[in-house]
Structure formats: C-alpha cells, structure tokens
Design brief:
It is a single chain. This protein has helices spanning 17-45, 49-59, 66-77. The chain contains 3 helices and no strands. The chain is mainly α. It has a domain at 46-89.
Length: 89
C-alpha cells in the first residue's frame, strides 16, 4: 500500500524578500522532485510520462483502486483519448 504524507506550508509575507525567495526555492524543489518521480514511475509502468502523471494523480485520490489504475493505463496504451483525470471516473 502506498503511504502518502501531507504537509502545510505557510507562505511568508510578500514583502519579506528573503522569506519569499526561500518559499520559491522550496516550491521549485517540490516541483522538480515530482517531475523526477513521474519519470521514474513511467519507466516502472512502461508507459508515457503523460500516462504516469495521470496515474500519479489518481494514486493521490481516495477513489484510487488497482482496477481503475489498470483501466487508465489501458486507455492510454490503446490510444483512446485520455480522460480528464480530475473528473474521472
């Protein structure tokens, strides 16, 4: 079972230049780590990065099931236009 962790980031006062720089560095680091995770997931699942991105998102939702993940991967692999993952299924 996947374990997900949550955290809270308090944005600094926009006038705090040093705080804002640190905030942006943190956000950029999170984005970079997410991109690298999706690339790794794509290789593990033998799917495109677009598909892996959808799988990553689905895995963070309460509606995730292994069956839905397989269905989503098959939609991508079969050339079916991928669903709007935010509203699927």
């Amino acid at each position: 079972m996947n374990k997900h962790k949550a955290f809270l980031i308090e944005m600094p006062d926009p006038e705090d230049k040093e705080g804002m720089a640190a905030f942006y560095d943190l956000m950029n680091g999170i984005q970079d780590a997410t991109i690298e995770y999706i690339k790794k997931l794509a290789k593990e699942l033998n799917v495109s990065e677009d598909c892996a991105s959808d799988v990553y998102y689905l895995r963070t939702r309460s509606r995730h099931t292994p069956e839905l993940e397989i269905e989503l991967i098959n939609l991508h692999k079969n050339g079916t236009p991928p669903p709007n993952i935010f509203n699927w299924p």
